[in-house]
Amino acid sequence: MKKILVSCKRGETTAAVLVDGQLEAIYSASDDNPRLSGNIYKGRVQNFLPGMNAVFVDIGRDKNVFLQFKSTQKFSVGQNVLIQIEKESVGTKAARATLNFSLAGQFLIFLPTLGYIGVSNKIRGDERDRLHALAKKIRPNETGLIVRTAAEGCDEKTLSDELAALQKLWERILERNSKRKPPALLYNDNDLIEKILRNEPDTENFIVDNLKVLRKLNELVPPEKIFFHEGDAQIFETFGIADEISDVHKRELPLPSGGQIIFDKTEALTAIDVNTGKFVGRNFDETILRTNLEAAELILRQLKLRDIGGIIIVDFIDMASDDDKRTLMNFLRERARIDRNKTTIVDMTPLGLVEITRHGNCN
CA 21 to CA 4: how far, in whole Å? Predict the structure, then answer.
C-alpha cells in the first residue's frame, strides 16, 4: 500500500512516499529557494561566449543561465530565446538550459522538438516492443515520445488522450511565448503536488497537515483518499520516519558496525567516503568487507532518498582480496536494480574508487 504524507512548515513543503510503511522517496519545495529544473522561460541573450557555441540567458532570476547550442544555430546579444532549464545551479555554476523541450505526463514524456522514441528501461520483452510501436503510431510528425514505466499495460486510447493533453500544453506555452516580453516564466514544472500526482499515480492515501494543500488535493484527487492530520505530534513523527527524513540533510551518517559514510557534493560530482571508525573486529578482512557492504546498502538508499543524480564516486575501505571486491561490486549491482531511477554501477578503478551514475528526478 502506498501513502503520501505532506507536511508544510515555515515555507518548506516536504512529502514522504511510504510503501508498506517503508520510506521510498522524498519530495521537497521551498518558497525561498524554488527549483528551476523543467521550467520553460522566454529569455534574452545577455552574453555570448565565442568559441564555445554558448550564451548566458537572462530569465529574470539573480543569475543568468548557461545555454550551449549547435554550431549550425546562431544567437546574438539581445535576442529573445525560448529555453527549458535542464539542470539546477550548483555552487558557482549557473543553471543549465536546453533548446530540446520535454513535457512529462503520467505515462508519456512529450518531446515537441525532437524526433525520438524511447521506452523506459524498466519495461522489457514483448511489452517494450508493443509500447514502442504504439508510441511510433500516435506521435505527431517531427516530434518524439518517451514511454514511462507507468505506461506498462496501457492501451492506445489512454496514451493518445495523455498525448493530446501534452500537445495542448505545448500550444499554450507557444502562445504565451508569442505574447509575453522577456524575461518571462511560461511554464512552471515545479508545483510539488502536481509533480507527486504525476510521479506516484498509484497512491492510495494522502495525509496532510496543511489546509492549503488539502484544498488543492481535493481538486485533483477523490476526497475519500485524503485525510487531514491533527494532533500535537508532527505527521512524520506519528509515522515514525522523522529521523530518517532528518538523515538526508546530514553530511555524516553512522553504520551499524561503528563506521560512517561522509557525503560531499561538488559542482562536478558527489563524493562519498567510507570509514571504519573505531571498530575493528577479530578478523580484519571480514570487518572491512562487512563495513563496506553496510555502507553500500546505506549509500544506495541515500542516493534514492536524497535524489542524487549525475556522477557519484565512492571511496570504500581498501580491500586486499579480489573475491571481496567482486562480492562488493555484485552486491552494488544487485541492489541498484531496485532503484526505479536508472542507476549504473560502472566499475572499480585501480585506486579502489567505485564509479556510479544515476538519473536524478531534479525533484
Answer: 10
Is residue 162 located within the same domain as residue 117?
yes
Q: Which of 311, 319, 318, 306 is nearest to 343 (CA)?
A: 311
Bridge partners (DSSP) listed for residue 44: 58, 80
Q: How many CA atoms lie within 13 A of 81 on its CB side?
A: 31
pLDDT digits (tens, 9 = 90+) for 240-280: 999 999 999 999 999 998 889 999 998 889 999 999 866 55
CA distance 138 to 147: 12
Q: What are phi and psi of 176, to 5 degrees?
A: -60, -40
The boundaries of the domain holding residue 221 are 2-34+195-242
Domain-embedded: residue 363: no
For residues 110 and 130, state if they share a domain: yes
pLDDT digits (tens, 9 = 90+) for 68-80: 998 888 899 999 9
Could you tell me what percentage of the chain is helix, strand and coil, using 3-state DSSP and rounding each to the nearest 5?
Answer: 30, 30, 40
Answer left, alpha or beta for residue 26, where phi above 0 means left and psi between -120 and 50 means alpha.
beta
Number of domains in the chain: 4
Where does the chain have alpha helices with state H? Answer: 125-138, 156-179, 192-199, 211-220, 235-238, 242-247, 284-305, 322-336
All residues at 6 or more sequence positions from 202 whose CB lies less than 8 Å from its CB, including other chains:
2, 150
In this structure, the number of other CB atoms found within 10 A of the CB of residue 189 comes to: 19
108 shares a domain with 70: no
Asked whether the beta carbons of 355 and 343 are under 8 A apart, the reply is no
Q: What is the DSSP letter of 189?
A: -
Neighbour count for residue 8 (Cβ, 10 Å): 19
Handedness of CA 220, 223, 224, 226 (dihedral sign): positive
Task: Report how far Cα 19 is from the mean position of its chain's Cα atoms.
Answer: 18
Residue with cell 544567437: 75
H or E segment at 242? helix 242-247
